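Marked as duplicate of an earlier ticket. Keeping the data here for the record.
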Amino acid sequence: MIQKKAKTLKDLAKISGFTESTISRVLNGLGTKYRISESTQTIIKKIAEDTSFSFNENARGLRLSKTSTIGLIVPDISNSFFAKMASLIEREARFHNYSIFLCDTDNSTKLEKMMVRLLQKRKVDGCIVAPIGLISKHLEELYNTTPTVLVDRFFEDINIPYVTSDDYNGTITAVTRLIELGHTTIACIQGIPGTSLNTNRVNAFKSTMNTHGLTVNEDLIIGNAFSEEDGYASAKQLINQNKVDMPTAIFSLSNAITLGILRAFSEENINIPEQISVISFDEESYSGLLKTPMTTISQPKEDIGRQAFSLLLKQIEAKDKKIAQKSILLPTKLIIRDSIGSILK
């Protein structure tokens, strides 16, 4: 058994008797390409293992101008929407022999900027970013140096390819359904104002109300974050401001917001849908298992992740990344359950 430790390719060449180039090609996974026999590859890998040889991936990346790594930035990995998407992207990356650097920005633009700088220093081959959605300059700079695809949220004023759901038409379908059931006073509990996702959903909400000749009450459009805490606070605000004349329905802009709404209603003994109907963006594994199964707008999380990785891979492999540049809008699906009811007489 070989006892001597090998710290460099030169050490490994002395121990094994093979040239440094042959060893490098085998350990880089290029043995078959360079017609190195299977038996030779097996011997080199065994000697590398026995000598505790650690191949320097950073050095390898510098030589090949490739690190086989991809950065993935999400605003909140505890949110099942991003967790599901991240899981799919990681599987796709692994299948294509890439590793993932996963960064959680905790819905902080400051952290998002830090993570972008970190990934640039790591020389990742590409980045998939679900941005906070308010500031874009650092992402423009990232795209200028590194293949990048945005997911879920995007920016109208910059030319970075993105993959997201068709929020606008998904909202129209949901709000139209509420109106068909007789609801005319509908509250909208939103996320972060100014983000593409939030703007599209709120604009579609207003447009649908106007199309049906209904007045939009701006006082019933409340909320400041895509979080359970903000959903809870917004629901409490809605109850306190409208004790006499509550809206008959709520359109919630995310699954996390909806959980906060449900908690607030439970404390106030408000029953769904007998006293108020609720419809929510994002289908979750528990949506149909709640005490009152939730009507949702389902987004294709896995397709978003899969297509985002595919777009990124095309950028990485293209000599001119603009050739691979395009954006993708995926359809949503309305899943009707017991949380919405008719008030027609």
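See parent ticket for discussion. Residues 301-317 form the longest helix (17 residues).
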